[in-house]
Amino acid sequence: MKLLPIMMITSCTGLLSAQVSEPLRIKEHTLSNGMTVWLNEDHTQPKVFGAVVVKAGAKDSPDTGIPHYFEHIMFKGTEKIGTIDYEEEKKYLDQIEVKYDALAATSDPNERESIQLEINELSRKAAAFVIPNEFDRLISRYGGTRLNAGTSYDYTVYFNTFSPQYLEQWAELNSERLIDPVFRLFQSELETVYEEKNMYSDIMGSQAIERLTERYFHPHPYAYPILGSTENLKNPRLSEMRKFFDTYYVASNMGLILSGDFQTEEILPVLEKTFSRIKEGKAPANAPVELPPFKGREQIRIKFPVPVVKVMALGFRGVPANHKDQVALTIAVNLLNNSNGTGFLDQLVVDRKLLSSMALNESLNEAGILGLMAVPKLVFQSYGSAEKMLWDAIGRIKKGDFSDEIFQSLKLEQKREYASALEDINSRAQMMMKVYSQGKSWEEYVGSIACIEALTKEDIIAVAQKYFSDNYLHIKKKTGKYPKEHLPKPAYAPIVPQNRDSFSVYARELEKIPVREIAPYFIDFEKDVFSYIFHDKATLFVTPNPVNDIFTLNLSYGVGALERPELTLLASYLNYIGTQKHSFEDFRNQLQMFGSTVSFEVTDTDFHVKITGFDNHFRETIDLIREFLACPQADNKKIKQVIDEVKVMEKAFVKSNDNMVVALLEKVKYGEQSRYLTKWPLSRVKQLKGEDLLAVFHEIQKTACGLHYCGTLTPDEVKEVLSQTDIIRRIEKESHSPVYREPRTYDQPTVFFLDMPDLSQSIVYSYVKGDNRMDLAERHASKLFAGYFGGDMSSLMFQEIREFRSYAYRVSAQYYMPPYKKKEGSGEFITMLSTQGDKTLDAMAVLDSLIREMPERPERIEALKQTVYNHINNEYPSFRKLSSRIAGYQREGYAEDPNKTYLEDVNRMGMEDILRFYQEDIQGKPIVYVIVGNAKHIDMQKLAAYGKVVRLKKKDIYK
User: Fold this and answer.
1) Which residues pair with 609 in a beta bridge?
2) Contact (CB, 8 A) for 651 and 724
3) Intervals of the chain under pLDDT 70
4) Which strands form 254-260's sheet, in the order they lie side by side?
5) So what's the pLDDT on residue 4?
6) Per-residue confidence (pLDDT) for residue 8, from 0 to 100
7) How distant, in Å, are the alpha carbons of 526, 622, 677, 700, 706 from that of 533?
């Protein structure tokens, strides 16, 4: 085993101290079968993040979709998991595999339909032995949450979070799934993948990105979509999928990543016992496909469905991961764009020379993406003018036209971003997965951080001259859209397993592994965070940072966008102005010299001023921020930038089905109080002056505020600095947050429909207005009910709509309650699914039946309770989020962590409590459906069976 302390950074960067860096240690180990293990102990949260990374992704089977589809199959179980009798099931699975090879070998439509029906019949017979979702249920049974997976071009990763007392069970389950995965429920899962492809095709701009990616990366396998082509998805070969597994899912090609609350020496024998069972072997070392350089100015036009707005870009060849120029190129790109908005491209936007501009620098394992994008001003500016500005910005870097102070500040910014990415268990584990997938050791990654300090100005000039060359891809947008591939719904019978609540022999054996009893963590409002009340409307929260010397200070003023819609405009405007003493450029550059940033964010309930930096410059940073808060300088030229951004946003908003269905749901629930109808219309925005928004800003700063500091300074030191400012003295007004809007009552079933003719999918929401329930036990019953109905892979919605019938890729259910301190107000039961247009009525039929006559499955209740326990334990916040979680609870009206009483109540509840809540709050009430879809794919007369159909237009729901 090799110990790799990230404290190596200390001598080069000064970011981390030996006293506090224990959570950042990574230990590398190799199992007897050659599998790599990276272990990171961190006892700051009561959880473990576990992942298996396979160095095989879409590029290793280009355009087939096999790597991604195999990722889905890995949730279906093994010869031991997910079956009551594998030997009998296998007889049908072997026949299904042969039939799929036959299907891929023919293009005759009649023969294909016949084969697919045969597969359907065999699948239904095989389902008689299947225990659906048993792997997910076992993960949940043994402390797991957030079970998921992902396929990229270069790697595939399987991960979840779990409670530490179940580490042995986690290791057993996740090693078992990699030994003998079984391709069961294949036909229905293939339909789910189609639904996923439909979902992505409806995302605005996704097809444009796919076409651009194809052109940029040709002839590399990165040119093909990760999900594969529609043609290949229609012709899956299980035999090829098996070959893919046998080739790449071998021990030496996999990494086990664990970060969290465990003792390394205790768990190594467990990992050896379990994961060393994975077969040994070496994956083929495929030679990377060399990307040819662009030849001069190569041109491509890409269709994008937003009119009026122009977009152009320059694409260059970047560098792959592990390249010696990667760090220097990152700094060069930061001279164009950076977090303080001081880059050369940022300045073009701030000075209103461009509407928008950004640089992109991304390193995949075998190639890099390097590009600059510009959105010319909406009126009169040409593409040629915008392009010249991009080249001028590039030219400044090539000539070294940047100060040493700016250069050093960008190095500091890079160090801060590196350190911030390693702060908590989740983000650190994500970085560990990425680094392992790139073929680097952790030591090499740490070394790349140390290299930042050694960079010189000449290094940056050299990489700029090398990579921003005269050989590039010139991209220009043209208004239009690409045709979508439509697969009609199959005439398959649903594949409904009969053993949905059964347990395999394997599951019974797993119960024999002993488990240590560990009580869940609850937040202690008094001990976990120091709080100091300046006065009744200003409270300081101080949380220690145990990892590095980066501070955050969040000023959370208790007024949000629901109360003051213009705050969204204010948050944007503040990013473009300076102070009465310092111009925007001077103000931001001074912040950057300290390694600090400031940003502005508005939520429904709060306006946030977010400050980040290094504790050794805390006082200087706060002095600058104090000046900005007290004396911002209005600039009406910058208001025009905000107005143009609103114009573009509104044109894009109405093209997105996800946006429009939320706006439609708001209209249905809240009528004229919908946030999309109370927001400022463009006509009003155009009349704004800078002074108007700054008057709002000064008023906001009078509102009750929580000051959330996290860093290495003591509470007294933080108090002393803040007390010397006028930030506290300005605060004098009560906060009215959270604002509550009473949902509307409907006396009959109704279907609200918005037609978007280009969509492949329909997005369907249902809404039932609940009752006024202030009793804590009833609120807890509502949560339990929502989890039972649509909370995870074992819920009614997931199994009945997605798993058994493949009618949707996304399904969910929530029961929303008003804030606890509100003494009146109704709940809202909301469900959501997205489905291929011609399956809309089929999916609604199942959903409607579940809402009207909810099935009783009492055998699931204990697992549901375990899920509640898991979420409470595993969602204990990281140190940066502790104080905001406490303040949120206090504002709701809680004097202690509400999860304590929630867990106590849940432990006493059973199926009868869920059923009682359902019968009193949901059953028999009018169901209102909200649908955004393509009317051509839906029988509107049949849709009327679910209520009076009300067809709305965009102007009815979005001002």
Assistant:
1) 555, 600
2) no
3) 1-22
4) 2-4, 26-30, 36-41, 254-260, 48-54, 156-162, 144-151
5) 36
6) 28
7) 13, 19, 38, 19, 10
